[in-house]
Every structure is written in C-alpha cells, then in structure tokens.
Amino acid sequence: xxxxxxxxxxxxxxxxxxxxxxxAPKPMLPTAGVPFLAHLLSRIRAAGIRRxxxxxxxxxxxxxxxxxxxxxxxxxxxxxxxxxxxxxGGGIRNVAKHLTAEHVMIFNGDVLCGTDLRAVVNTHRTTDxxxxxxxxxxxxxxxxxxxxxxxxxxxxxxxxxxxxxxTDQINAxxxxxxxxxIDSIPEGRPVSVERDTFPGLLDAGSRVSxxxxxxxxRDMGTPGDLVHGSSDLxxxxxxxxxxxxxxxxxxxxxxxxxxxxxxVFGGTTVGRGVRIGAGARVEGSMLFDGAVVEPGAxxxxxxxxxxxxxxESARVRDTVIGDRAVIGAHCELKGGMRVWPxxxxxxxxxxxxxxx
Length: 356
Prior knowledge:
This protein is α/β, with parallel strands linked by helices. The protein contains 7 helices and 28 strands. The strands form 6 sheets. Strands 5-4-1-6-9-8-10 form a 7-stranded mixed β-sheet, with helices on both faces. Strands 12-15-18-21-24-27 form a 6-stranded parallel β-sheet, with helices on one face.
C-alpha cells in the first residue's frame, strides 16, 4: 500500500444531526467513546495506508485540535480547508495539490463500514481501473441510487432512486482514484462525483470497476443511524481498532458511576463522569460526558448530550437531547424528538401518555 494515500471528506455541516452538530462537526461526535472519525482512521491505518489528507470546512479547526499531525495514530495527517461548498468531486479536486501517490482512496467521513480496504485496492489494481467504487449489497435498495455491474465487474450505469431497482448494489462512499482522474476534475467549482465525474468517465470509455461485497455498512447521517452505529461498534458488530475498551453490552468510560441496580445494555456508551441512578434503564444509547440519568428513568436508543439530565422516572425513546438540557421528572419524549442545548423541560411538562 506504499503507493496509496487516503482522502477523507469531512466538510459537511451535519444538519440532519442537529442539535448535536451545533458545537462539533459530524465526524467529531463521540461515537462508541471516541470521535467517529477515529474509527475510520484506525481502519485506514490497519489497511497499511500511512498518509491521509482531510478535506475540512465546517468547524475545521476541531480536527487538527484533536488529532494533530496524526503521529499518535501512526499516520501522517494533512488538513485542507474548503472555503465554499464544492461537492464530493470538488472537494476531492481541492486537495489534489497535497497528494503524491499514484492511487488515492477516497472516503466519505460519515460512513461506518467493515469492508476489507486492501481488497478494494486489489480490485482496482487487477482490473487496471481508472476509478473503483466500493459497492455494498443492501436488503432494500429503493432508498439509494443503484450501481449495476457486468460479469467483468465493470460499472455500467449510475441510477437514481427508483421503486423497482434493477440491482441491490449501492454506492458505499469509498472509492479508489487514479491520480490523473483527480487532476481532470474541474477546479474551484462544485462537482458531484455521482452526477458528473462517474457518468463522464463511463461516457469517455474509462474503466470504472465495482468491488462488491456484503460487508457491514451504515450511513451515519441521521440520529437513528448514529445511535445504532455506535451500538454496533460497542457490541463488536462493526469493526474498529479505536474502541477504548472491550466489546460488550456497554462501554463505560473513566469516572462514570452506575447504580448497582441500574440496567444498562444494548451497546450503550456511558461517557466520562456520567451518573446513572438506581432503577434506571438505558438501552442502546449514547450518554455523552457528564450526562445524568436519574433514578427510575428509561432511556432507549437515544442520545443524551454532554452535561444533560434525564429526570427521575422520565422516559426517553428515539430522541436527541442537546448539551446541558434538562428533561424534567416524569416527562415522556419519543419518536424523533429533539431538545436543543440548555433547554429545561419542567416535571410532567411533556407527555404522550395520560398516566402520571
């Protein structure tokens, strides 16, 4: 892998994850105990790639502040700031002058995936491709654009979402580019690889290969996917060398206090200094540093932000609670609700059930 470098695109604002991304970029959100990006970087390192260029934009300084030059990860990290949104293709072109290798592996910074990265590069080499796409098979491809391939593994089309997709193969957000293809992308303007670059390569007769597998894959762009992805990392369903503890039903970080009769399971992450009270039940959730779950409260498949409190006997399901927010005793939140940072809900203030 000496002739392969990596580019990770981490410039998005993560609007679908608000309010969590008001204070941190999506790839820096705590996920299974570390910033999500740390899991991806650990897999890049394990594949034998040493040099990584990060294409940043929103809250760009947070990446360098946390990862530095990458030495502690065994990587050489370079940061390139995108001043205006350039799309996936434009973002790749924007980092071109910092690349030196013949082949460049590109990653969307919000995808959790378990594919064999060396195998993707091997497909690229053996098919002598100009670009190789990692394609993953999904049970229901209707929500995604589909990418069919022929018997020789050559990509034949890029299809929009349809109710009757001709294939179960979708673009998994990981590519290998020849350096010359990157240099051919127009500079200084927005470009979409899906709508511009890849169809243009097909029209020109270039070799676009597909590496197809059934590896673990999840787009971490929504709160539900973030929660489930974090749970999969904690339970060992999704692979990562960056997990700060053994896999299991829960991951407990330094200084957390869990009452002996609380029930915490389902791949829950219990952040630093978190307190979980007597009789509380926490399932498949993310409790950021300093969060409090008071006695008798129930938290299911939710995110509880840093320093936030879930009051006594409150019930929280499929909900995002912003940093330092307070959910009063006996409140009931569910169904995708989002509570912004520093908001306080009074006891019994929000309920879906008539009982108190």
